[in-house]
């Protein structure tokens, strides 16, 4: 079923963030901040909030024998120390990541084993230092190297674990040209500017949480049954969120800890901000990925056979699979194809979403492999991709709703000056710098999450209140949803729309994740507006309202819906030190209609920066002897800084995809990181003739 399209008047207009001024002047209230504190105090009437501090395990596997809180409790500021013996019980402790302080088992190093509650953050921190945790350590495994792997459940992959078409082995054996290499991406951590944090107040049988999350309703749906509450007894608010990058897409242990503490402290609010160091084990990460790729091709580059076999790790306490082999299923033509995922279960923290989970490492591997194939066949890398453009989705056989990869490649090549590129690598030396250029394709599925609802209420005088429990994690959703609502109701943005988001008291909304938010929430708003106009006409009385759940979904049964892009990079590699600089990058995208060019551009730029950062710097180091991440701060976990970023350009094709959403848009939050690391590595190869297949591409690789 296709949704009714709407007329774009406000959509397409570049608007600055409506909350930009509040944010840069410090008036925007985050989960554990100022005004929230006053609000909590006023609501509670029971003293100032308590401050929590987490105490974490030092063993990677074992048991908590005893938590000695006596010294901590002697501290004048400390009110309580909760551990597995005295913390409130959960009604459901099935999920071992979320069932914190429920039993003595330790499943990874850095797991929550106690929580100190104190009058100030300082005394909470000091109290945590005074807690003595006696642990019985057991043998454990914390490294993917040599670990036994298994075939995971398709539900963890998000689609089939393995796929196979044709006869890959026979086609590879017969192929005139073939390549076979292993490509790896490291263990990586997403570190939002605002750490995971929450203020929680349990009063009159209701828990209220101001949470830094990508989905207020998903936190409530997950935690309410665990806490033995009806969902409407758990109110979650997230008016402002300082970034998430996937790490706040699913609730994690600290949110349960603060909820339990609030239960214990009933009537008095509890605040918890996870420290930067504690984010590394407690709030998810991208696992290391190993991609074994084999491609057989004709001499002109046309792919005959393609295999992408992925090995990743997960955690013994909860299965999560980085679905890196999925994009190879739909990206290029070729009759014989095989993809697979295998997983090792380790005694380590629980992996989770990090911007473009699956697509980012998977497309890194595939797009460097395409560059290897370009070298093996002597075909230009842009031409090679064009030559392997499929007629229909090779995986499902369905037509694409709007596949314009070739247009992105051609437009990018023209703007980047690709025609002037020397065919051979190591052809340009500028002073002490080898100079080269590279390209990679990008793709991301047009995810649409069902069940979203919106409420439209007339305020009189042509003004409407539009309410939906969505979250703006810094992407500009608040700004963009107003534009969508304005067009859906046929009014101006400023004078016509009063938007409410970020609260479970508002109609159900799915997570700000999978680049699905604007499309899914916007569809609900558009359909609610259409229903409202059908119910109440053009000039409604103030007070009348309609709440409506989105009923039309894109036809993913019969159409393949993905966004596409082409990323071009120039790399300069120092001939004596191996230092890599990236003076310019260009991304050209086809993403359906761009609703707000200002906020969209920022999403693409942020994606390019994050992809560059992954290409050259990012790597978490886990010490397999102890099971912890050594690089647990932003001094040792390097991310790109301003000085690392050169000239970044992004543009998008003039598109409207009304089969994806009634707005004609697809998601844009994640595609910018996809392919970018490959473009950088491919450019460094072109500069030096040295092929890096393992990220990050640090200086030593080029010496
Ligand atoms: Mo995004 S990693 O799906 O929040």
From TrEMBL:
Residue ranges of domain Aldehyde oxidase/xanthine dehydrogenase a/b hammerhead in the record: 25-139
Keyword terms, alphabetized: Molybdenum, Oxidoreductase
Pfam families according to UniProt: Ald_Xan_dh_C, MoCoBD_1, MoCoBD_2
Gene3D superfamilies registered for this protein in UniProt: Aldehyde oxidase/xanthine dehydrogenase, a/b hammerhead, Aldehyde oxidase/xanthine dehydrogenase, molybdopterin binding domain
SMART domains attached to this UniProt entry: Ald_Xan_dh_C
Protein name as it appears in the record: Xanthine dehydrogenase family protein molybdopterin-binding subunit
């Amino acid at each position: 079923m296709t949704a009714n399209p709407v007329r774009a008047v406000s959509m397409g207009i570049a608007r600055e963030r409506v909350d930009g001024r509040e944010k840069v002047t410090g008036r925007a209230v985050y989960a554990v901040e100022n005004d929230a504190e006053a609000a909590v105090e006023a609501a509670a009437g029971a003293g100032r909030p308590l401050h929590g501090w987490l105490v974490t395990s030092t063993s990677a596997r074992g048991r908590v024998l005893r938590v000695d809180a006596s010294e901590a409790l002697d501290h004048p500021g400390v009110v309580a120390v909760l551990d597995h013996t005295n913390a409130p019980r959960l009604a459901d402790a099935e999920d071992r990541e979320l069932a914190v302080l429920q039993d003595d088992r330790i499943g990874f190093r850095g797991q929550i084993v106690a929580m100190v509650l104190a009058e100030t953050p300082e005394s909470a921190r000091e109290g945590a230092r005074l807690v003595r945790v006696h642990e019985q350590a057991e043998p454990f495994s914390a490294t993917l190297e040599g670990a036994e792997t298994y075939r995971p459940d398709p539900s963890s992959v998000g689609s089939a674990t393995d796929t196979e078409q044709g006869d890959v082995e026979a086609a590879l054996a017969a192929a005139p040209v073939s390549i076979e290499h292993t490509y790896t991406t490291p263990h990586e951590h997403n570190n939002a500017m605002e750490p995971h944090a929450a203020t929680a107040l349990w009063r009159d049988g209701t828990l209220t949480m101001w949470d830094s999350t990508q989905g207020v309703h998903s936190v409530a749906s997950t935690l309410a049954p665990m806490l033995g509450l009806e969902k409407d007894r758990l109110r979650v608010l997230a008016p402002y969120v300082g970034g998430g990058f996937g790490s706040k897409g699913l609730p994690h242990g600290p949110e349960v800890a603060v909820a339990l503490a609030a239960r214990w402290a009933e009537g008095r609010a509890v605040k918890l901000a996870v420290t930067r160091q504690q984010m590394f084990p407690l709030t998810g990460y991208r696992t290391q990925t190993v991609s074994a790729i084999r491609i057989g091709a004709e001499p002109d580059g046309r792919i005959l056979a393609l295999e992408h076999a992925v090995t990743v790790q997960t955690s013994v306490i909860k299965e999560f699979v980085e679905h890196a082999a999925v994009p190879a299923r739909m990206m290029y033509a070729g009759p014989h194809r095989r993809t697979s995922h295998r997983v090792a279960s380790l005694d380590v923290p629980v992996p989770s979403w990090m911007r473009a989970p699956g697509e980012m490492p998977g497309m890194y591997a595939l797009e460097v492999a395409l560059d290897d194939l370009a070298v093996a066949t002597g075909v230009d890398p842009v031409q090679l991709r064009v030559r392997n453009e499929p007629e229909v989705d090779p995986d499902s056989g369905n037509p694409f709703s709007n596949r314009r990869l070739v247009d992105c490649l051609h437009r990018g090549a023209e703007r980047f000056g690709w025609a002037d590129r020397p065919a051979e690598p190591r052809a340009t030396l500028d002073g002490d710098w080898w100079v080269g250029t590279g390209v990679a394709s990008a793709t991301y599925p047009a995810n649409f999450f069902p069940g979203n609802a919106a409420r439209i209420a007339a305020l009189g005088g042509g003004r409407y209140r539009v309410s939906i429990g969505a979250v703006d994690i810094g992407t500009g959703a608040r700004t963009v949803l107003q534009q969508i609502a304005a067009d859906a109701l046929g009014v101006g943005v400023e004078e016509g729309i009063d938007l409410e988001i970020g609260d479970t008291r508002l109609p159900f909304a799915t997570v700000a994740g999978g680049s699905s938010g604007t499309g899914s929430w916007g569809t609900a708003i558009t359909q609610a507006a259409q229903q409202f106009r059908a119910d109440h006409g053009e000039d409604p009385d103030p007070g009348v309202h309609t709440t409506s759940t989105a009923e039309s979904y894109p036809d993913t049964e019969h159409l393949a819906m993905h966004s596409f892009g082409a990323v071009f990079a120039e790399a300069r590699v120092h001939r004596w030190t191996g230092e890599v600089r990236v003076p310019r990058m260009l991304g050209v995208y086809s993403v359906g209609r761009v609703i707000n060019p200002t906020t969209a551009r920022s999403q693409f730029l942020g994606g390019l920066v994050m992809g560059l950062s992954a290409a050259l710097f990012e790597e978490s180091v886990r010490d397999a002897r102890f099971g912890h991440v050594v690089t647990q701060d932003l001094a040792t976990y390097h991310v790109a800084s301003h000085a690392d970023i050169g000239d970044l350009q992004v543009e998008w094709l003039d598109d409207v995809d009304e089969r994806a959403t009634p707005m004609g848009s697809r998601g844009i939050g994640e595609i910018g990181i996809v392919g970018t690391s490959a473009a950088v590595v491919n450019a460094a190869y072109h500069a030096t003739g040295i092929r890096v297949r393992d990220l990050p591409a640090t200086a030593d690789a080029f010496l």
